Task: inverse folding
């Protein structure tokens, strides 16, 4: 059960998930980029010992996955569920990840830094997410000497992460702002106060499925709580703007909007072949339809699940075998029909 | 830096490949890079180049810095030229080795060069205390600006107490 996909969170109509990632390094070892395979294994052992073999409250909750011991599809699944980054699998002999049972915490080992502690919660709850990340960081620190400098804070392989090493982010669904063409302006405004907005699927500002990630850029000179507060404030403002844009769309183009949403629902519940891009786009319409009460009998949780399950890796895992692109499109359509036509098939 | 392919030789080539929108980055030795098919020997424009490119514009004095003579980190063997290429440092010691060049970059990226956030408990209560005092002083200034004098008095007392603790422990 992946908490962020299956759980419920506050304000999860617009904010899909909240994430905190902390970058940390061990004092005694060179950063992963300069580590041999042998030394990398030592680092993996040190970190996993600190969690699993240490006498901590966490030990029964976590399991270690060594990247070179899992199949390519399993790697793909972890990436699609946002539990690891694509970077982690590029050096499989050197890297590993510790994941807890509800998959709300994943500790990547030997990605760009020795440690990337990631906490991922459903909905808009950055404070809770930070509390957990902070706690896990404390527990790790009991057994590990971190690379830390009094002046510039936690030392990281890339100087853009130095200081707090924190990257706080929200995954947010902004269909109305996208339709009304406001995203560019939001992007620029966010940039000016040290935040980045990018499309989650697709390149640059283009976003398949109208899902964006907002995160802090600056990691030094502000305390973690300040960084999180800024992100929270900006997210709230963007949510407000999204609500306004939705209200405007409803007021001026209600029938057109209903038509678009219901057509998308119609395609999803009837298509026999569908690609992931098209599916993401239509799922976004349905999500909006649910938020606006235009579509009933489908809940946001189902939509969150679909968003992940239609991706190649997870899809192949569900069907238990590797599929060609064509087969995937057919299976994907079948899966979506099954999930959305709750009473029919 | 060690080659990601043979894991033996020194990596001197940084390869960024984009195939079907999938970006892969590798650090290879020259031999492996040559063997690796489809790689043209040219410097790709990456975010790292861009980032480290900032370094040059910071140091754009009439005299060009000679990178060949740059120091090498004694702990991991990283040098400035490689950092420029990779955008990654090799170890914690690099921050000391390249301090003079890194600090302007860090300041430019973050708008600050002083960490004010979390401090590991092990690094000693000293740092925590000093930082707490600093933060309280900032808060005190804000309270005074806002004319919240009751709060300011509280803060002042708290600062005094903490400073006493600091003196004792030193």
Result:
């Amino acid at each position: 059960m992946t908490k962020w996909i299956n759980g419920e969170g506050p304000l999860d109509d617009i904010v899909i998930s909240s994430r905190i990632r902390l970058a940390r390094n061990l004092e005694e070892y060179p950063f992963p980029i300069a580590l041999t395979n042998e030394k990398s294994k030592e680092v993996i052992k040190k970190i996993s010992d600190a969690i699993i073999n240490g006498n901590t409250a966490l030990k029964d909750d976590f399991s270690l996955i060594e990247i070179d011991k899992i199949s390519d599809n399993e790697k793909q699944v972890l990436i699609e569920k946002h539990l690891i980054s694509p970077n982690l699998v590029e050096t499989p002999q050197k890297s590993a990840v510790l994941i807890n049972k509800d998959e709300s915490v994943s500790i990547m080992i030997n990605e760009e830094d020795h440690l990337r502690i990631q906490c991922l919660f459903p909905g808009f709850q950055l404070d809770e997410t930070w509390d957990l990340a902070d706690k896990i960081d404390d527990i790790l620190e009991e057994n590990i000497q971190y690379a830390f400098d009094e002046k510039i804070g936690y030392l990281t392989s890339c100087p853009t992460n130095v200081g707090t090493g924190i990257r706080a982010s929200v995954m947010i669904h902004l269909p109305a702002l996208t339709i009304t063409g406001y995203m560019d302006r939001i992007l620029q405004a966010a940039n000016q106060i040290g935040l980045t907005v990018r499309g989650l699927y697709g390149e640059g500002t283009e976003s398949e499925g109208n899902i964006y990630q907002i995160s802090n850029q600056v990691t030094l000179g502000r305390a973690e709580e300040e960084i999180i507060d800024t992100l929270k404030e900006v997210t709230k403002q963007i949510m407000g703007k999204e609500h306004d844009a939705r209200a405007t769309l409803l007021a001026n183009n209600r029938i057109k909007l209903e038509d678009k949403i219901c057509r998308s629902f119609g395609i999803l519940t009837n298509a026999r072949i569908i690609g992931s891009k098209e599916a993401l786009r239509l799922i976004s319409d349905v999500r909006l339809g649910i938020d606006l009460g235009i579509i009933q009998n489908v809940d946001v949780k189902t939509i969150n699940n679909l968003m992940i399950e239609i991706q190649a890796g997870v899809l192949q895992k569900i069907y238990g075998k590797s599929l060609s692109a064509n087969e995937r499109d057919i299976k994907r359509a079948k899966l979506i029909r099954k999930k959305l036509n709750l009473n029919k098939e | 830096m060690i080659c990601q392919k043979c894991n033996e030789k020194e990596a001197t080539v940084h390869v960024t490949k984009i195939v079907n929108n999938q970006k892969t980055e590798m650090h290879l030795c020259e031999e492996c890079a040559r063997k690796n098919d489809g790689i043209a020997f040219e410097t790709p424009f990456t975010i790292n180049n861009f980032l480290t490119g900032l370094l040059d514009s910071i140091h754009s004095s009439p005299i060009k810095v000679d990178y060949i003579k740059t120091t090498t980190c004694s702990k991991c063997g990283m040098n400035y030229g490689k950092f420029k290429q990779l955008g990654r440092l090799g170890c914690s010691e690099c921050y000391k080795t390249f301090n003079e060049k890194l600090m302007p970059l860090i300041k430019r990226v973050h708008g600050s060069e002083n960490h004010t956030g979390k401090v590991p408990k092990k690094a000693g209560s000293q740092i925590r205390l000093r930082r707490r005092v600093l933060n309280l002083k900032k808060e005190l200034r804000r309270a005074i600006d806002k004319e919240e004098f009751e709060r300011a008095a509280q803060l002042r007392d708290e600062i005094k107490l903490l400073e006493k603790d600091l003196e004792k422990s030193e």
About this structure: DSSP finds eleven helices and ten strands in chain A.
